[in-house]
Amino acid sequence: MSAASAATAGSEDGNGKVTRVIRVGTRKSQLARIQTDSVAEKLKDLYPEVHTEIVAMATTGDKILDTALSKIGEKSLFTKELENALERNEVDLVVHSLKDLPTTLPLGFTIGAVLKRENPHDAVVLHPKNAGKTLHTLPEKSVIGTSSLRRAAQLKKRFPHLEFKDIRGNLNTRLKKLDEKDDFSAIILAAAGLRRMGWESRVSQLLGPEDCMYAVGQGALAVEVRARDRDILDMVSVLHDPETVLRCVAERAFLRHLEGGCSVPVAVHTEIKDSQLYMTGAVFSLDGSDSIKETMQTSLVMDTQEEEGSSDDPQHVGITARNVCSRDQASAEKLGVDLACLLLSKGAREILTVARQLNDAR
């Protein structure tokens, strides 16, 4: 079946109406299913004639659970199998956590929607015996679980009395490891995931940018589609949240220009205020002792008119957003590149090279 006919495959309901079947690819974890179901619901609300069929599959990152993500050295750990299904026309679109998507997508794919971002910050989840404490007040040599080099690098520097150890598995697994054993005093997780799972009550402390800046794209959901599937692209594009798109374009451009990934500690913080996009970006050594952090800003037009004229869909770091001002997207991408250049001019490449070598040697 061709991509176009797959996308428009339909079936008659009891009233003789043709419903359109859209197959949505997702990872198998509970969080991935919750995220995908939320996107499917939004599509159904917007297009009542559409019937969504969820196709769940395990990815490499889901299967390798005994190794830190940064050691596996594969850029598309949680996306490759899903993209293979998209390429084979087995699904029509795929829902991802944007932070899992590499800044350069395989040829023929594009991010057709970036949804409104949840809180992008990291959260501290304490072992029940430490209720009421914070990272500041935990006893000396308390062990904190995180599989993220970015989190560990920043928190080692900020809280030198604590120790950090890898913890892998989906959210359910990590919480179980925390609660049922005494290996960890606390673990660090993305606040957005905890909220989507309905586990906000477990958040003991939200980490602001002064403690721990977040990962590129953290807290945002992305819908990946085949770039040539015009009808699917048009369908999902209404899900774009313009502010989230612009922030994430800047963040992804920053990471791509630094040639970062999950094997090096890179962190960001972005906000839009009074038609200005502010971006702070940083790189860290593995122990956090060495770092470079800078902030830049750019002006935005914030014009919501859909761009007329060109039938082309210019991609900005893998994102196609025709309903977001193209000048603003270009400004956001330039901001990310300019900030990366500033960090590189101050020695970021050396810090990242050493971090990569040390991580490979671990």
Q: Would you write up a description of this structure?
A:
It is a single chain. This protein is α/β, with parallel strands linked by helices. It has helices spanning 3-7, 30-46, 60-63, 69-72, 80-87, 149-158, 171-180, 191-196, 230-237, 242-258, 326-345, 348-361, and strands at residues 10-12, 18-27, 50-57, 93-97, 109-114, 122-126, 143-145, 163-165, 186-190, 205-207, 221-226, 266-273, 276-284, 291-299, 315-316, 319-320. Strands 1, 2, 3, 4, 5 and 11 form a six-stranded mixed β-sheet that branches. Strand 13 and strand 14 (291-299) form a beta hairpin. Helix 10 packs parallel to helix 11. The longest helix has 20 residues, at 326-345. Its cofactor is dipyrromethane. Pfam families: Porphobil_deam, Porphobil_deamC.
